[in-house]
Amino acid sequence: MSRHPYYILEDILKHARHFLGSETMLVERLPGPYPFFQPLCQIEGGLASNGHWLNHFYLEYKDRLSQLPAHPFSIGLRREIDRLPDMVGRRFQNWGWTYALTTDGLQEIRDRLKAHREATYFPLLDAAFSWRLGINVAKHDGADKLADEAEMLGIKPTMTAEEGEKVIWDRHRIWFVTPALAEKAPILSLEEHAQLVEVVDELVRQFRLLESPESHGNGDAQPVATAQVVPHYQRPEGPADETYAPDTIPSSSGVDGNHVVLLIHGIRTQADWGPMVRSKLEIAGRIEVIPIKYGYFDVLRFWFPIWTRRRPVEHVKTQMRVALQRSRKTHPEAKLSIIAHSFGTYVIGEILQQGFDLKVHRLILCGCVLPEVYPWHQLQGRVNGEVVNECGKADIWPVLAKSLSWGYGASGTHGFGAVLVNDRFHAGGHGQYFEPEFVEKYWEPLIKRGEYQGTDFEKKMPPTPWWVSVLGNLPLRWVMIGLLFLAIALTVFVAAKAFLIN
């Protein structure tokens, strides 16, 4: 019989304390399939401890770590390439050796737990070592390899394959480990859960921040009271021949206050653009980016004006409140900013008109389907910062939404023309906003520093094609209703005729 995950975690933690010491800091584990692939890629981020960067760590501990007896897992040594996805860190890669928990014992435990519960969750600890390629930097075993070595030690819930794929980009920091176990089919009893909390707390105490990023591992370190969490995107970017320097880490200087930035998606999507936008905007301790999803919203529900729209509006409103309340526990002055796309703009518009009691600091709308006559003048007490409406002159979807249904408008194509809104025009269509270059150029300065800039397209913007203007004013919704009633009438007629003949 396999041992309970709690005791496995406790064993590994004891060995980690003994071999690794306390000269480490907490950082967020890079999400994605590398370096832990196969079953180990089915995780939700996690934590890593980082000596920032301890140049002699690997050589000093290599022999002892290879003997680390973390039963029932075996500790394996493998060489790997860790390539960051383009949307997180372009032109950057890690080469190195990784100590990781192999799947021999893990698979057995997962199989047993899976038979007990559909969703498999339990803590898992891994240790990894990686290097960044550099030129004229420290040499190990005769090869130019190192300027940063990172020792990773993380707690990760292991998920089903479907869940793992879905959350591969989601954050999962240590204080979310126990809620995750509690929310989704917990495999721990209350007593075991309490024991797990104690172990997690001990892990945090063991890995205090002793080196600042500026010291590059060489400063006179002093322990601090709490651990520091550094997101994965603060790892150095740049070509492989660049060595690490503190200024390669995104700086929070110039950021005007603490923000919670919510991302609201549109119809027929699972908001795949959210992780990329988060990686560009989020700064640890200053800006937290949270995608809010209301489920897959199909075209039929988007078109139908009765009942179907209320549920996503109420869901998003609740999630907005929860997100801001959670953030204000640590940052009481945190401001709320929102980026919404397509039907998400309608959702936000409805929430603001309902007398929502939270003030919005900055609001970015793209592919907007709110009516052009939306009453912005009535919302001056609820939106106290910039409102930017990104308009795509080749975006036909807001025009169709206005023509085919009720309650929508073509503001995402033509703009609002309102005093309180900056209509920013672009040449592209409905999905042009989710390129990394677009986010870096337009949204990053606005969210972080309140800097607005126009586009080159606006300087020589052509007139709207006549057929687009005509389409936006055609009452095609009534044509649709007429066709629907005609189809029903024909169906009834054919059925009645067939009944009379028989």
Which properties best describe this structure?
alpha/beta; Rossmann fold; globular
Q: Can you summarize this structure?
A:
The chain is of the alpha/beta class and 502 residues long. The chain has helices at 5-20, 57-66, 103-116, 161-166, 177-183, 190-206, 274-281, 299-303, 310-328, 343-353, 397-404, 411-414, 436-449, 456-459, 466-473, 476-501, and strands spanning 25-28, 47-50, 75-83, 93-101, 125-132, 138-140, 143-146, 149-155, 259-264, 287-292, 335-341, 360-366, 387-392, 422-426.
Tell me about this structure.
The chain is α/β, with parallel strands linked by helices and 502 residues long. It has three domains: 5-204, no CATH class; 259-464, Rossmann fold (3-Layer(aba) Sandwich); 472-501. Helices cover 35% and strands 17% of the residues. The chain has 16 helices and 14 strands. The strands form four sheets. A six-stranded parallel sheet has the order 10-9-11-12-13-14, sandwiched between helices. A four-stranded antiparallel sheet has the order 3-4-5-8, with helices on one face. A two-stranded antiparallel ribbon has the order 1-2. β6 (138-140) and β7 form a beta hairpin. 37% of the residues are buried. Residues 1-190, 192-197 and 199-253 have low confidence and may be disordered. The chain crosses the membrane at residues 478-500. InterPro entries: AB_hydrolase_fold. This is Alpha/beta hydrolase. Keywords: Membrane, Transmembrane, Transmembrane helix.
